[in-house]
Task: structure prediction
Amino acid sequence: MPLSSTKSVTSEQTILSRVEIEALFGLPFNDLLYKAHSVHRQHFDANGIQLSTLLSVKTGGCPEDCGYCPQSIRHPTQVANSSLLSLEEVRLAAQRAKEAGASRFCMGAAWRSPKEKDLDQVIDMIIEVQKLGLETCATLGMLKPHQAEKLKNAGLDYYNHNIDSAPEFYEEIIKTRDYQDRIDTLQAVRKAGMHVCCGGIVGMGETRAMRAGLLHELASLSPQPESVPINLLVQVEGTPLHGTEKLDPFEFIRTIAVARILMPKSRVRLSAGREQLTDAHQALCFFAGANSIFYGEKLLTTGNPDVSKDQDLFLRLGLHAEHA
Ligand code: SAM
Ligand code: DTB
Ligand code: SF4
Result:
């Protein structure tokens, strides 16, 4: 895989080597968190958290084979397939998200890539959500350059497309599209002028060296993604990754800290998997530099902490919601 040819690192972007990134992971926990928190304070309000709410606008029946995903048609999960939601259903969900305090609304669809007709309908949704004064984000699978341009022209603020893992682990998780396909979509999004939301998943049985590899790839994107979701695998029965050995939460917090050090100006999002973390673990993630969350009781098909629980946690920690 000729990955190096996909990147052009700008002169002000100094990328640590994978070995140096592994060394960061290996620091004593307090030293790593001190370092990450110091970087965080240089670039952000240390108590401000951006809130994004997710909505699955088209659920299940996806032809791809992503080993973590409950929406793949190839995995025997309990997810009920549904067709594209109506404009009114999306508007109501976005209205609720705004009332609860979210600043961004992210629409996800279980597609390999959108068909032109699908894209037109999602564009209507984007326009409707914008009218409510929310930032918009979409994650619809692979995009061709003209599709990215169409979304940009409709006013889409962010496009989410994750690289998911280190390149050498990727083929163990997904076989129906390769790493380069992901990079091509990210380049189309960037070229169209949208903000890039790109991250990955940890807790899939990868080694620490592979976690360093994932963050190395993310930090090497040039420019770096504005938004970096770090997902902790949500293990869903019926998916190939169900039963994977659980990641030590402190290793997850280390991953957040290293992401913050490598991508000082990006929003690092504490994403899927928050239900597996205690309040204390989440507080350490915020200290380590996470400054965005998925907010609302559902991710796409799986659970997320209740709004009231998050509001209570924010109150106890003195955190406040903040725009991007
Ligand atoms: N189908 C589109 C795609 O794959 O690009 C968009 C939706 S897909 C569900 C978006 C991202 O959700 C995936 O790239 C993956 O990082 C994350 N994801 C999916 N299932 C997950 C799980 N069980 N645990 C953690 N993250 C997950
Ligand atoms: C991202 O990185 N995580 C979100 C969002 N981008 C689209 C999705 C998480 C999905 C978790 C499993 C589910 O609820 O189906
Ligand atoms: Fe499909 Fe996206 Fe799930 Fe992969 S992650 S199976 S592409 S919905």
